[in-house]
Amino acid sequence: MRYRAVISYDGTSYVGWQRQLNGMSVQEKMEIALGKIFGATTSCTASGRTDAGVHAEGQVIHFDADTSIPTDKIPYAVNTELPDDISMLQCEETRDDFNARFSAKRKTYRYSLYSSPHRLATLNKNHTHIISPLNVEDMKKAVEHIVGEHDFKCFEASGSVVKSTVRTVFSLDIAVTKLPAIKGIAFDPIKLDITITGNGFLYNMVRIIAGTLVYVGMGKIAPDEVKDIILSKDRTKAGKTLPPEGLTLVSVEYED
User: Fold this and answer.
1) Do domains 2-94 and 105-254 have the same CATH topology?
2) What mean pLDDT is predicted for residues 167-185?
3) Which residues contact 184 (CB under 8 A, 6 or more apart)?
4) What is the pLDDT of residues 2-30, one digit of tens each?
5) DSSP letter at 246?
6) Domain boundaries, the chain
7) Positions marked active-site
């Protein structure tokens, strides 16, 4: 029987989703847990890799198992064998040809950061600290040039080999939260959540888009320049790749 499951994890302590020789991965922890519960070696496939330090709220995996455990009880059983920073949230039976990676139609990521003269200890684990004030209105203007189908080569990190760099961004939103004012600092701190949904993403694409928007907010790139940056297909003209700790895979959507 093939199963589809939704899992979440804090990626701080892991080398990423995929098994690697240089450290512990989320996949390895999950497969160890599945093997213990089902009494047999069990491999699992995710909707996509997440890099070291990247988190997930709604990563989707599939695996095959022959078990008498009721499907709705599988998460309870698996979670007894998982560390506190990984959890299976739900599980269901699926068709034999379902593939968590190749059947995916849309993915949503969130990049979280905060703007403050000083680091905020309670946010540092899963947010990126920007020490400068940000012009959020300019950042929102720049978003208009990113949404849609484009060749996003300018937002692709080196080392990736793909047939096409054309992707579709269905939506890109910036949510702002005012943080408690701190007496005596240069500007009031804010928290930003940049949420992006697309049919697929290039290597480090979301982190580079977030970095480009931050450069817009800092005044290093004008909002309308983003259109030209995309047309140029030149990675050096975009913003820097922001750190992994601010990135979270929120959800993955399928047709069924």
Assistant:
1) yes
2) 92
3) none
4) 999 999 999 999 999 999 989 999 999 99
5) G
6) 2-94, 105-254
7) 51
Q: CATH number of the domain at 2-94, please? A: 3.30.70.580
pTM assigned to the model: 0.95
- Other Cβ atoms less than 10 A from the Cβ of 12: the count is 14
Q: Computed from CA positions of residues 26, 171, 154, 110, in that sequence, does the dihedral angle turn out positive or negative?
A: negative
- CATH code for residues 105-254: 3.30.70.660
Q: Which of 7, 250, 254, 4 is nearest to 106 (CA)?
A: 254
Instruction: Write out pLDDT tens, residues 66-105.
Output: 999 999 999 999 999 999 999 999 999 999 999 999 999 9
Q: What angle do CA 85, 129, 252 make, to 5 degrees?
A: 45
Amino acid found at 170? F
pLDDT recorded at residue 115: 96
Interior/surface letters 220-232, b for 16+ CB within 10 angstroms, e for the rest: ebebebbeebbee
